[in-house]
Amino acid sequence: MTAPVVRFAPSPTGKLHVGNVRTALINWLFAKGQTGGEQGQFILRIDDTDTERSTQPYEDGLKADLTWLGLVWDDTFNQSKRFDQYDAAADKLRGMGLLYACYETADELDRKRKIALSRGRPPVYDRSALNLTDEDKAKLEAEGRKPHWRFKLSGDRVEWNDLVRGPQSIDTSSVSDPVLIREDGSYLYTLPSVVDDIEAKITHVVRGEDHVTNSGAQIEIFKALGGTAPDMAHTPLLVDAEGGAFSKRLGSLSMDTLEARGILPMAILSLLAKLGTSDNIEVRSDLATLAAEFDFSKIGRAPAKFDEKDLLALNAVLVHDLPFEAVRADLERIAPDAANEAFWLAVRENCETVHDAKPFADIAYGTISSVIDDEDADFIAEARNRLPEGELTSESWKAWTTELKEATGRKGKGLFMPLRKALTGQEHGPDMSVIFPLIGREAAERRLSRA
Hints:
Layout lengths: L4 E4 L9 H15 L8 E6 L9 H14 L5 E4 L4 H13 L3 E4 L3 H13 L15 H9 L5 E4 L5 E6 L3 E6 L7 E3 L8 H10 L4 E5 L3 H13 L6 E5 L2 E2 L15 H6 L4 H10 L12 H7 L10 E2 L2 H12 L4 H11 L6 H7 L9 H9 L11 H9 L10 H13 L3 H13 L7 H8 L1 H7 L4
Parallel strand pairs: 1-2, 2-3, 9-10, 11-12
Antiparallel strand pairs: 4-5, 5-8, 6-7
Helix pairs in contact: 1-9, 1-10, 6-7, 9-11
Subcellular location: Cytoplasm
Function: Catalyzes the attachment of glutamate to tRNA(Glu) in a two-step reaction: glutamate is first activated by ATP to form Glu-AMP and then transferred to the acceptor end of tRNA(Glu).
Protein name: Glutamate--tRNA ligase
């Protein structure tokens, strides 16, 4: 197999979210997961033809997010630097009679669609603009109308073998000629994308299944411009855990937001790589492993369900193995008093994110509200009297509770829960044998004293 050349083409008009990242990741894994030959190329194309909405801060942000994730690109370019090439392609299509001027307003087009539907016909553009004479066009332009430009489809059936969906075909007579250039002269996605794919020698276009219908028109534009259409793979879209529309929740799932919440890159990548595939959703330690395991044949046709609970579960697996040096900076920021190895090793298995260590830092080093129930008051007083002398160690908890068990006859929950509540103010948390020496004897004595 020839080394694939793929592209990820975000618009710098917003933040990078999990839906974007899944597309980028699938492209990257396919390009970098090839065996027995040269690795493929992953190209980052910045789709900034919408010059009013595209901004440099958004572009910088998406590049920073991709770098944070490890999805490093082999080459990058901006469409806003290539308008001359798009103009040349448009002129070529006009010369071939395949790009024609239309003057209908949005209201007129909407009315045409409604009339077609009311008569039981598909709402396909009727190509009435092809019948306009030069005199007609001049009159319309004198009225202040500016044309938008449509690509004239062949009306034939376009076929391709999709790497995810299998054999696909689009009857181009059943769809409207696509608009390639708006009234204001700006380009829609379609033509620049084809021009760039030809020049960059893109071998595979991998994107969401919402682009399937567009593919028929784009394949014809490839041929008209003298190019060869790349192979295509259209993947199912993400839905939420209940199977509902996902788009409204994407803002809270942008990469900068997830990073701020303490979600690790490999948790995000492991989940997105396995969602909607036949593989189990399990955490992986690096991108190379995910790439080696990737295969389009594993991707199913059903929508891929994204559940934040899965993301947190994978993140927890990674967090539980993080050494202290990997979290030192975070601990110094969120809980300076707790920035030590003993504390981190004590609490990490109770954390889904590093940020979850903050409440435990408050328990170990802060001021907490002890919980001492009336029925446990005498027991807690006895426990205070029997606190081990000197500095508390990893052996202190067992020795202390064993002594209390023998002295009071308490055992199980009746023994351990009152002590946990008095010392931590909570019913759940880290292993007390580990947190007890972090609290220290002086603080423990104070917390066991009922005010």
